[in-house]
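User: Run a structure prediction on this.
Assistant: Running it now.
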Amino acid sequence: MPAVNPRRDADAVRAAARLAKVAGTALAEGDLSLAQYRVLVFLDRADRPATQVAALLDVTPPTVTSLVDHLEARGLVERKADADDRRRVMCSLTAAGRRALQHGDALVGARLGRLLDRLPDEEAENVRVGLESLNRAMELALADRFGDTAPGT
């Protein structure tokens, strides 16, 4: 593991926070909030109980209920009783939800691309590779926490 560099770490954390703002602004063009997009992202790989979605988002169950209510009203998410435990509510993406997620990905990707266009090609590619690696690490953390199968495993 590389040596800790507080200034460099602070720059990385601040970039992540600023990138969240960039993503939120881009998603607004697609009529999605960042929180709604995150729900779609988490449901892309697997149907999940509402309680797990709340844990993933680090919000209360009533907050996730409100988010899912709005997504369901738009036809992007559906709820159904768990086949193994009918008391548990499962959330899943609809076909329209997958299209909305892909549109959100494109909007955020375009915004990220415009930022990276300001960098030399090699540096921009390094950022993309770094973001892919970070995404892989987050997927592995989800797999550890929830037993998901991480991509590539």
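The domain at 17-146 is CATH 1.10.10.10 (Arc Repressor Mutant, subunit A).
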